[in-house]
Amino acid sequence: EEGAPGRRGDRDRGEEGPAERGPGAAFHMFVLMEDLLDKLKLLSYEEEALRRHNMRPLSRHYFALPTNPGEQFFMFCTLAAWLITKAGRPFEQPQEYDDPNAVISNVLSELRSF
């Protein structure tokens, strides 16, 4: 039966369940977050981005675990705006209560223009 989950048809389409990806797949997001944090530290994000907005430094797993989606989204937008500005493009810092769809649209539009 090709329509049943976990059958050959699913694997042919590139859809893998956790068992097919290996035992470490569940922890891959934590590794990615630690790499992201290392790169942000190399760019001095604590001094340049966080102090300006009076924000706390990120934990090793800040974006890997969904704890407070609103706060995490605002932190993501703040960091995205800072990185775009750091790359030499003027970008207005999003405000906490801006429309999330508009903010993401602006970030993606700016990134596409790179």
TrEMBL record:
Locate the compositionally biased regions of type Basic and acidic residues: 1-19
The organism's taxonomic lineage, starting at the top: Eukaryota, Metazoa, Chordata, Craniata, Vertebrata
* Gene name of the encoded protein: Ift57
Q: What is this protein called?
A: Intraflagellar transport protein 57 homolog
InterPro entries per UniProt: Intra-flagellar_transport_57
List where in the cell it is found: Cell projection, Cilium
Instruction: Tell me which Gene Ontology terms the entry assigns under biological process.
Output: intraciliary transport; non-motile cilium assembly
Q: Please indicate which superkingdom the organism of origin belongs to.
A: Eukaryota
For this chain, the family text in UniProt reads: Belongs to the IFT57 family.
Record key words, sorted = Cell projection, Cilium
Task: Using the UniProt annotation, give all residue ranges assigned to the region (Disordered).
Answer: 1-23
Organism from which the protein derives: Dicrurus megarhynchus
